[in-house]
């Protein structure tokens, strides 16, 4: 009896999700069992369905894909994850791999490349789109073995990164508190920690940092 690989698609654009679902449906050994339109929903859907593989966009509302990958992997380390993104920078690739992704596929990839990525990842290998520099893996391994200098971003907690994204998206402290089910005082404390760690002193500076570092 053939066993299908169960897949969850996390992508905030409805048309792209539908396109991916239709594409994957052409393969008899693949089955889309769930979808999510933002990072938080992705975590909930994955927890509920426990798929074999997650295809996830890195730029999503509420919680970005990179943080969602980190959270999914911490809860379900055996689940494979492929990041689907437009970002080609070495920094983005390395950060996504470090978060726990098993594959990194650019959105301009061919159908064949996506299917190959799924095959590689499900076989326990790391897959990177060929158009990404071949030096990525070497740099990644060197950083992991030698210890990369800790940046201000590395010093932020997952919650602080989450709040930074929401601040940059224009949410006020009360809105963030309601959204995350925490107190306004807790949000204010996280905001103060963010400013201290990043050496930034107002909302405009935090927003500029988020934009510059492609957090939103």
Q: Helix and strand string, N-terminal first? A: EHEHEHEHEHEHHHHH
Using the CA coordinates, give the radius of gyration.
18 Å
The number of strands is 6
User: What structural category characterises the helix and strand content?
Assistant: alpha/beta
The outline comes out as globular
Mean pLDDT comes to 85
Helix tally equals 10
For the record, the CATH class of the largest domain is Alpha Beta
How many domain units?
Answer: 2
CATH T-level topology of the largest domain: Rossmann fold
Distance between the termini: 44 Å
**Largest sheet composition:** 6 strands, parallel
- CATH hierarchy: architecture of the largest domain: 3-Layer(aba) Sandwich
| Largest sheet, spatial ordering of strands | 2-1-3-4-5-6
Notable features of this structure?
Rossmann fold; 10 helices; 6-stranded parallel β-sheet; 216 residues
Commentary on this structure:
By secondary structure, the protein is an alpha/beta fold. The chain has two domains: 5-146, Response regulator (Rossmann fold); 158-212, Orthogonal Bundle (Arc Repressor Mutant, subunit A). Helices cover 51% and strands 14% of the residues. A six-stranded parallel sheet has the order 2-1-3-4-5-6, with helices on both faces. Helix 4 (90-99) packs across helix 6 and helix 8 packs across helix 9. The longest helix has 15 residues, at 184-198. The protein starts with a strand and ends with a helix. The relative contact order is 0.10. The mean pLDDT is 85.
């Amino acid at each position: 009896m053939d066993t299908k690989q169960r897949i969850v698609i996390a992508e905030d654009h409805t048309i792209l999700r539908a396109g991916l679902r239709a594409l994957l449906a052409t393969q008899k050994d693949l089955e889309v069992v769930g979808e999510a339109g933002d990072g938080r929903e992705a975590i909930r859907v994955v927890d509920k369905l426990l798929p074999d593989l997650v295809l996830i966009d890195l730029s999503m509302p509420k919680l970005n894909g990179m943080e969602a990958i980190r959270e999914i992997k911490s809860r379900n380390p055996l689940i494979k994850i492929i990041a689907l993104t437009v970002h080609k920078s070495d920094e983005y690739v390395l950060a996504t791999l470090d978060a726990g992704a098993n594959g990194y596929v650019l959105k301009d990839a061919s159908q064949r490349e996506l299917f190959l990525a799924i095959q590689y990842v499900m076989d326990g290998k790391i897959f990177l789109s060929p158009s990404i520099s071949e030096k990525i893996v070497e740099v990644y391994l060197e950083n992991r073995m030698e210890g990369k200098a800790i940046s201000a971003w590395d010093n932020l907690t997952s919650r602080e990164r989450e709040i930074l994204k929401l601040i940059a998206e224009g949410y006020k402290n009360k809105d963030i508190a309601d959204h995350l089910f925490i107190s306004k005082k807790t949000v204010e404390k996280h905001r103060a920690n963010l400013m201290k760690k990043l050496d930034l002193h107002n909302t405009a500076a935090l927003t500029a940092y988020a934009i510059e570092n492609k957090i939103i």
